[in-house]
Every structure is written in structure tokens, then in C-alpha cells.
Write a structure and sequence with these properties.
Layout (H helix, E strand, L loop, with lengths): L1 E3 L4 E4 L13 H13 L4 E8 L8 E2 L3 E5 L7 H13 L4 E2 L3 E4 L34 E8 L2 E8 L3 H15 L3 E2 L3 E3 L8 E8 H11 L2 H16 L5 H14 L23 H12 L5 H7 L1 E2 L20 E7 L2 E9 L5 E9 L5 H17 L3
Parallel strand pairs: 4-6, 5-7, 6-10, 7-11
Antiparallel strand pairs: 1-2, 1-16, 3-5, 3-12, 8-9, 13-14, 14-15, 15-16
Length: 373
């Protein structure tokens, strides 16, 4: 589908209302919904709380809590910096436990039913509100003289976070009398340290690099923020569908089951994708953040190696999508005559290769960028 949002002209359409597998074009719905709900300046945090209201004596008489609010970018390095901040507050002793809290989301960490028909290795780490290093660790094994390094997913994210925080505190010389455990942070506790990522920065990581894990964590964040309750996939799906309906975007034929597009159970029309892009185009508050989150053809992200040497290079801002037998491309272009154009293309195929159908997508984008009428 090709439209001019300013003139409201449909330049070309073929099967605009036919449900298709969008692959990672689903991320356009996730990130647009998040911006609409929260705004690009919204801070997604990981926080450390103290159950002791007075730590001037250098002693936390009670527990420390580390709670995640859906920051998928949080790392061991961030945890070390937060530990340094606690050291800087002259904390020397914690008499209680170190508690990991990921109750901002539910504890359904995996949904392998999403990908049961996929041959590609797209299984994700646990999707949790409290994340460290993408909920992965690296393990080494030695066979003979060969040392292999492989990824191992964290089984229990809140407990792992508590254990790692306890370890870093002790490395910094802070004594912890208690144990690492998981639990719920009581209300109204003082925040000792916080690490956050702004939503506009997170969606750029998601859309430019098509990051499935980050998208799924954001998907649950949307559900939590929209419902005011513990985030889960049901609330997330309802929030996205409400965003579609509230903005008069073609809803018929649209089924959203995840935030990343790795599931073949997602069904979306190119009419709905074009509608999302058009809605954001006219959103004065959020368009810049949304536009800047997309890959630049020939320059960065998943479009870095495409459309080079054409009028679409450094022009098109788009989102790609890839699954077995599926390739999608949607985004914004400016034609030679200065008109802004929206395109959305999905191919589902049983024969042929991704590269073949991507070459067709690229020729369409190049043709649109060349228009001078």
C-alpha cells in the first residue's frame, strides 16, 4: 500500500484489508502505542529501595530491595554503578536481606507457543520486569583443549538480580548479614539509587535493530501502564487494540499476540500498518521520536545494507520484518518532488528467497523516491 498522508491520496493498493503475518512490523504497533500512552520522555527504571528510613549512620537496619519496572537495557555495569552510589552514601552494613522484585509484570516469563511453527532460533530469554544483561549469562565449558562459551538464560530473574546485587555489595566492602531472596517491595520506601532509560531511546533500539527481547519487555510495560495493574500479555494486547480503535485505524483483520512479531499468530493488514504510520505522521507530540526510531536506508539498523546508491538512501525511514516465508517493509519516504509518502509491503511466500522479495520491496521504494510529478 502506498499513500500520501497530506493529500489523503491512495497512490497504490493491493489487498490492503487482507490479514497477513507482519513479522517485525508488529514492532511499529508496540512502539507507537507506547509513545501514545507514555510519551518519549517517559523514564523506565530499575530502582534500589531501603526499608530503613534513616541511613545516616551507615547502616541499613532492614532490607534492600531492587525492583524493575521494565527496563530491558539494565546491565551488570549499571548495577555496579548503583553499588558505587550506595558506597558513596557511606553505607557499610545491611542487617537484612537483599530482595529482588519483578512484580511489576506477571511471572509468565516464556510463551513458546508463539514460535512453535518456527524453525529459526527465535526463542527469547525470560520476559520479566527486572532484567539484568538481557536475562542471560555466559558460561564456559572445556573439552580437551577447546574452551567453548555459550549463552545460558536466567531461570529466576528476581532471585538472580538479588544474588548479583549482594555479590556486588560485598565486593564493594559493604557487609550484608542476610541472604538474597525474591519478594515484594513495600510501599513508600526511600529510593537509594535509580537507573533509567527514556522511552524514546528504548524504541530506537527496538525499531532500528529489531530487538525482539526489548520489544517484548516494552509490550508488557504498556499493559502495566495502561491497566494500572500487574503487566501481562492480555492487558498489553488490549492496550494496542484500543490504540488502533481510538485512532480509527483499520482494526478488522488485526490480531496482536506479542510485541515483537516473532509469532506467526500475529495477523495485520497493510492498511492497518499504513494507518499506524499515518497516525504518527500527524502526531505533533510523538512523530519526531517515532520517525527517529526507524532505520535509515543505507545508513543504520536493519536497512543499513539496503537501497544504497538510490534516491531512497538516507531518505527512507523504515521497519523491516522477517520470518520463515515472510518479509515486510514499511515506512516513510520523500519523493523527488518533495512529497512525503507512506509505504507498507508484506510478502508471504512458499517458494523463492527473502532476498528475491526484498529486492522487489527495494525497487518499489526506489520508484517512490524517484517520483517527480
Amino acid at each position: 500500500m502506498i499513500i500520501n498522508p497530506l493529500t489523503q491520496d491512495t497512490i497504490y493498493q493491493l489487498n490492503p484489508a487482507v490479514s497477513m503475518i507482519p513479522a517485525s512490523n508488529t514492532k511499529l504497533f508496540t512502539t507507537a502505542s507506547a509513545l501514545n500512552l507514555l510519551g518519549g520522555g517517559y523514564a523506565i527504571s530499575t530502582k534500589i529501595f531501603s526499608s530503613d528510613l534513616n541511613i545516616k549512620d551507615g547502616v541499613v537496619n532492614g532490607n534492600l530491595y531492587i525492583k524493575g519496572y521494565g527496563n530491558p537495557n539494565f546491565s551488570t555495569r549499571d548495577l555496579e554503578l548503583m553499588t558505587s552510589q550506595l558506597k558513596g552514601k557511606n553505607i557499610k552494613l545491611i542487617t537484612g536481606d537483599i530482595i529482588g522484585d519483578d512484580t511489576y509484570f506477571d511471572d509468565i516469563y516464556t510463551r513458546d507457543d508463539w514460535i512453535k511453527n518456527e524453525k529459526a532460533n527465535v526463542k527469547l530469554p525470560p520476559i520479566s520486569a527486572l532484567v539484568i544483561d538481557r536475562n542471560r549469562t555466559f558460561v564456559q565449558s572445556k573439552r580437551g583443549r577447546r574452551v567453548r562459551r555459550y549463552v545460558q538464560y536466567v531461570d529466576d530473574p528476581p532471585l538472580y538480580a538479588a544474588q548479583l546485587l549482594k555479590e556486588k555489595l560485598e565486593e564493594a566492602g559493604i557487609v550484608v548479614n542476610g541472604v538474597a531472596a525474591k519478594g515484594i517491595t513495600p510501599g513508600d520506601l526511600p529510593v537509594l539509587s535509580e537507573k533509567k532509560i527514556l522511552l524514546r531511546d528504548l524504541i530506537a533500539l527496538i525499531n532500528k535493530h529489531s530487538d525482539n527481547f526489548y520489544a517484548e519487555v516494552l509490550f508488557k510495560t504498556i499493559g502495566a501502564a495502561a491497566s494500572g495493574k500487574q503487566g501481562n500479555s492480555f492487558y498489553s494486547t488490549q492496550a494496542v487494540l484500543n490504540f488502533i480503535e481510538d485512532n480509527a485505524i483499520l482494526k478488522e483483520g488485526t490480531s496482536v499476540v506479542d510485541g515483537s512479531g516473532i509469532s506467526r499468530f500475529n495477523q495485520i493488514t497493510v492498511g492497518a500498518i499504513a494507518g499506524i504510520l499515518e497516525k504518527m505522521y500527524f502526531d505533533l507530540k510523538n512523530y519526531e521520536d517515532f520517525y527517529n526510531s526507524l532505520s535509515i536506508a543505507g545508513i543504520d539498523g536493519t536497512l543499513k545494507g539496503r537501497l544504497t546508491g538510490t534516491p531512497a538512501e538516507n531518505n527512507m525511514r523504515g521497519k523491516t520484518g522477517t520470518l520463515n516465508g515472510v518479509t515486510s517493509l514499511s515506512g516513510y519516504l520523500t519523493s523527488l518532488n518533495g512529497e512525503d509518502i507512506i509505504i507498507s509491503i508484506i510478502f508471504e511466500f512458499e517458494k523463492g528467497s527473502w532476498n528475491y522479495y526484498r529486492s522487489i520491496q527495494d525497487r518499489i521504494a526506489e520508484t517512490v523516491a524517484n517520483w517527480d510529478e
